[in-house]
Amino acid sequence: MRAVHRAVSELRRGTPVLLRGPEGALVIAAAETVGNDGLRELAAAALAPPVLLLAPVRVAAVLSRPVPLSAPEEGVAAIRLPQALMAPDRLRMLADPTIELLLPEVPERAAVPPLGASALLLAKIGRLLPALIAAPARDAAALSMVQAAEVQSYPPMAATTLHPVAEARVPLEDVPEARIIAFRAADGGIEHLAILVGEPERFAAEGGAPLARVHSECFTGDLLGSLRCDCGPQLRGALKKMAEDGHGALLYLAQEGRGIGLVNKLRAYALQDTGLDTLDANRALGYGADERNFMVAAEMLRQLGIPRVRLLTNNPDKLASLAACGIEVVGREVHSFDGNGVNDGYLATKAARFGHMLG
After folding, report:
1. Nearest-CA neighbor of 130 among 81, 78, 67, 83?
2. Which of the chain's ends, N or C, has fewer CB atoms near its CB within 10 Å?
């Protein structure tokens, strides 16, 4: 995990890294952060001209201009990078669909090099746009190196290595008897929080199934009161229901924007303002419809001693994911809120395209 964390940090600051696997080695750099110095480092480490690795939907958009909603959500594609496009501002333009696409020449498709999928996953782990310059690598010992197998195993390891690091009583406005427990993974990344109402651990030990909610952090909705989503009402409503019920566990996961991060969520908002819905905006950025890792929630519940829950949710994926991770979901508690005139389309998309049970 240390190598993955170091590689992510290097990519975020615009430095190339070396990605190794049984198929060979790639030197890669993030298209949205690399500068002229990073491009020179990449060229010095490369054995052949680089390609740009992108999600299939982004490659299709670059080649045909409109957002191609029929392109596959999963996988990786590549385009050749003529010299006219090997500049930081033009690479960012290719990577970021919120930037107007003005190309000096139209690129062509290229073969995806081995390790391409692991390269894109590494960018996603770093909450970067999944757009990477990549080339077969020569001996580049000066660069940080990470194994493709470490990248692929990172998401489950980031969940299974969670452990509690701090706990405090924090009386809340609607929940006088609340505690917050912070969980940290072995990678030392951003902590996830469990907000406990009453004594859900004791209630579970006695055979009960306390209320639980898996809530992904939403800076704009939870803290600022954004009207674009229903996250703030869901957060406060869940805590209030738990207080009324007597026991509950709200798992506050550091997975902003369905796992794409706050910066990319703001980009998705900009795309939504051009007419895309929530799902298609995420896909246009190169992300899947939902990038969250619900293993995190299951592991937190296990460590809290809560093996069974009544889940406050309208999302069938949360029900299925917790069950698949060994948590017994004995029932679903409806947890929907009326639209506010701004988020009506967002709620309609949740129901129609994500299958949320809002009725």
Report:
1. 78
2. C
Decide if pLDDT at 70 tops 70: no
- The confidence score (pLDDT) of residue 117 equals 95
169 catalytically annotated: no
> According to the model, what pLDDT value does residue 335 have?
87
Class at the top of the CATH hierarchy for domain 2-154: alpha beta
66 pLDDT tier (thresholds 50, 70, 90)? low
Angle of CA points 63, 261, 37, to nearest 5°: 65
Architecture of domain 161-255+292-353: 3-Layer(aba) Sandwich (3.40)
Q: Which of 127, 124, 118 has the alpha carbon at shortest distance from 146?
A: 118
Say how far apart CA 158 and CA 305 lie, in whole Å. Answer: 19
Helix and strand totals (H; E) in the chain: 14, 14
Query: What letter does residue 280 receive in the DSSP assignment?
Result: H
Residue 169 φ then ψ, to 5°:
-80, 125
pTM above 0.85, yes or no: yes
Choice among 58, 127, 283, 292 that is catalytic:
292
Per-domain residue ranges of the chain: 2-154, 161-255+292-353
308 in active site: no
Question: pLDDT per residue over 309-320, tens digit each?
Answer: 999 999 888 999
Q: Which candidate in 187, 245, 290, 317 is catalytic?
A: 290
